[in-house]
Amino acid sequence: MIRRTLAALLLATAAPAVAQDVATAPVLTSLDAYRAMAAGAETAPLFARELAAARKSVDAGIRAGIDVPTPKDRGGGPTHERHKANYKLIQQAGTLYRLTGERKYADYVRDLLLAYAKLYPTLANHPAASDQVPGRLFWQSLNDSVWLVHAIQGYDAVRVDLTAAERKTIDEQVFRRLAAFLTSEARTFDRIHNHSTWANAGVGMAGYVLRDPVLVEQALKGSDRSGKVGFLRQLDLLFSPDGYYAEGPYYQRYALQPFVVFAQAIQANEPGRKIFAYRDGIVLKAIRTAIQTSYGGYFFPINDAMPDKSLKTEELYQGVAIGYAATRDPGLLGIAKWQNKVALSPQGFAVARDIAAGKAKPFAFASTLLRDGPQGKDGALAILRSGPQEHAQVVVAKNTAQGMGHGHFDKLNWLLYDNGQAVVTDYGAARFLNIEAKDGGRYLPENDSWAKQTVAHNTLVVNETSHFDAKLKRAEAVAPTQLAFVGEGPLRFSIGEMAGAYPGVTFRRALVQVDMGKNAPLVLDLMTVKNAGKATYDLPLHFAGHIIDTDVKLASNVTTRPVLGKANGYQHLWVDATGQLANGQGRVTWINQGRFYSYRMATPGAQLIVAESGANDPRFNLRREPVLIQRLSGAGDAAFLSLLEPHGRYNAATETTTGSRSGVAGLTLTETTGARVATITLTGGKTILIAIATDTTAGKAHSVTVNGRKLDWSGPVGRFDGTAQ
User: Fold this and answer.
1) Superfamily for 1-237?
2) SUPFAM superfamilies recorded for this chain (predicted)?
């Protein structure tokens, strides 16, 4: 028997061309779009593979039978995972019906939804709900919204080919009931928050499918249709003009899917709204910005983030596909090619088709300043990249606003990526997502007691208390100021300032990425503090790697392990060693994935504390991670100068080591009128002077004299190479 090609099979089995009732025909994806996908699937290998995977998954679901259990479990539990699997199967099966015409897929969607039609009217608030807004199918209403977003797409695909009685039952007992539940729950539906985004998207898409303009308007403008909240208002308030999402990259990733799929539904049903042009194309900006806030495919794990979330997620498969369909940006094809997966949708088909046609180009990763806040006036996320290469060094300066309830108290925090690895790290969230044994995947108590506290980040702590005393309302009232940013050229920098995190204290941070020819760039960090009073200052550096050498004379705690403090995150730090910086100088070198890193400190009077997270953690909820803390006691105005130097290689396979010793011989700071000048002395006798002006006005001329040498430059930062005197 001659094997039929995939295209021939799909075309031969495509859903019959019968007269369609306009009131029930698919509206989220048109019949013409389904036919185009079926006709072209064989020429788009990535799409054909997704189609085959969906068929395998749904066929297994059909063989297993209908399973719609009464909800009882928290995240990760059997009933939670079953309902989660069901919404995916409904969506996939609906698409398969349209692409293959095989009635078994429509029947499966019908039977699943009829089972939900029996179950859903019997449900009250979920029995495992705790501090979250309870759902009916899931422990939090957010998951009910996610169920709706997916299930309504599968239902839309088959609805026209169900009987009138079946449609009526499913419409009224599943989708209208679920929409009514979500719109009546103001704590979910009428907020400016990612939970609301999912709820608005689900209700709005259901409104299109059920031909209910009231539901659509509620989704767009809030339950009372006033426009004070709702999807459009979220587009106004949750994104900055640069497409940066208020809660940070991790939640930008999560919220992106409802934003893009609902926008696509709006475009398909009401093109006159020009949703992709709304607010200067904010939806499309958000897709590109989400990608920019990643390294090696993984999102910068700031705020309540999980460090293992990457561009290889359903949200980004959808985002890349819809973004490409709207823009035809070949850089998005480059991301999709790296993802090696596409959405099972018309937009995903277009991506796969054009990748097969050789149209993909590398995505334009670049140094980027992403303003924060609806008007772009609430600080910024500053990203400095040493080049477009995959493993180029990246410095991230987190000079952003609080980020709502998922924000951390870490103004002027920073991260470093180098050699394909996270080097200066951020803990992210204390949470095990969907792990039933860890509180059902909820945020753990240590998220508040450790992960959100300032000492868990790489920024200034005053008197062992967190910024804003870890009070959300106070933190949301004031944001940092991004004073300066230069992302191109051999000297790239970000300067931010924070006033109001502590009473009477203003601190400023300059992060300077210094190119070193063939070697990786150095990163100079100058943290200055102005304080009319006296205080104890701590400047932590959380890092990934194993310490191999230090020139600080340390007193190590080898038989006991004292805890650094009693509250504000300090209770979770074990003190492994302490030592005074001799003459205000000190260096610690560690190794991480075959590269050495030397952290050099030039902070007169400072003590070095070597610590590790995990103290006071009886349930083992925290990861054990190292941290170096520079401490100044009884200080008023102060300056912390640090330099991070990547160097050398270790090859475990060949057992060879090169460049394991630091190439920096010294680091000093000179304060002059109008500027501070860092002198980096290299082992060969050369020097690099980095002058950082107090006045950060772009283009302003500066002139200072250091050790008899006159330095003239314009702009906030100047570089001067020479030899040691």
Assistant:
1) Chondroitin AC/alginate lyase (1.50.10.100)
2) Chondroitin AC/alginate lyase
